Amino acid sequence: MIRPVELLSSIAKLRFVKLNYDIDFSEYMGWVEGISSKVSEGVRGLLRMYNVDVYYGQATLKSDTLVELGDGTSLKASNIIIATGTDPSTIPGLEFDGSMVHSNRSILSIRRKPSRILIVGSGYIGVEFAGLLAKLGVEVYMVEVLERVLPAMDEDFSKLLSRRLSRLGVKTYTSTTVKSVDKRESYALVSLSNGLTIEVDYILVAVGRRPNTRNLGLENAKVELDDRGYIRVDDTMRTSNPRIYATGDVAGPPLLAHKAFMQAVTAAESIGGLKSYYNPKAIPSVVFTDP
Q1: Cα separation, 287 vs 124, whole angstroms
Q2: 44 and 125: one domain?
Q3: Fewest Cβ atoms closer than 10 Å to its Cβ: which of 167, 168, 193, 204?
């Protein structure tokens, strides 16, 4: 999603290049969704290649060896791996509606280029979308309840990125919250705690993620959660029930794909009888911004 915009932006910076370009926003977003679909299809292809039986539906643990699907299908296993991931968090008054208030997932389905957008939250998802949309010519507002953008990262990096976003035209308001949202037919009036009222076409809520542990029947298998709702695991990815393992986002931060991959390997090897341990001492991460 970011690469085409970054490439054009880099070329446009060259003094000896006279470049006039316009990105077809609808085509661009369709291309982004297409790439995502290809990745999903690639995973499905791997599962077919390795003869993995796939069932679609809501799964509930009935015991530590029995899973029941929504259609009544029962599946038995000696061991179970829970890898249900996380969902975008929301806040009261800014519930996702798929049309005006979006998560980082549903925002990919829009085809009309917004003139103005409000991003709530300035973590890595918020700042990535802020920089990208600003380069696409969108007027971007971003609010953060804490004192600086990227509050969980290094303060020097936070200051550097704040200056860059400002040069791109992003209007950032820290120590600020959304007081109210008045939805109209094609836009919303948003009142902020700093006294400003802004008119925007879309609102992107990027205030973190919550684990998908609800309605799984974890209590039936005595699988314990930590104080944030993530599944508690040891260094072999085993839960409080020795027959059940958990990997990826549902097993807690950091919420990164390569961490999930390593945890999956650890769980599979542990179930297979190997001595395999997950070591979180050094996990690289990246925020896709400029710089």
Answers
A1: 6
A2: no
A3: 167
- Cα 216 to Cα 8, 57, 63, 211: the distances in Å are 45, 12, 11, 11
- For residue 31, the enclosing domain spans 1-54
Q: For the chain, what is the domain count?
A: 3
Sequence-distant (≥ 6) Cβ neighbours of residue 223 within 8 angstroms: 61, 82, 231, 239, 240, 241, 244, 246
Tokens representing 104 are 């980082």
State residue 162 phi and psi, 5-degree precision: -60, -45
Q: Does 97 lie in the same domain as 195?
A: yes
- Write out the two tokens for 213: 């542990």
The answer to whether residues 179 and 104 belong to one domain is yes
Query: Which value, to the nearest 10 degrees, does the dihedral of the CA atoms of residues 101, 105, 106, 111 take?
Result: 110
Location of structure tokens 């020097």: 156
State pLDDT tens for residues 40-84. Answer: 999 999 999 999 999 999 999 999 999 999 999 999 999 999 999
> Three-class SS of residue 241?
coil
Could you give the 3-state DSSP secondary structure of residue 197? strand
Q: Domain check: are 134 and 170 in the same one?
A: yes
Pair (104, 143) in one structural domain: yes
Decide: helix, strand or coil at residue 107: helix
**For residues 254, 3, 11 and 133, what is the CA-based torsion angle, rounded to 10 degrees?**
-80
Q: How crowded is residue 66: how many other Cβ atoms within 10 Å of its Cβ?
A: 16
pTM score of the predicted model: 0.92
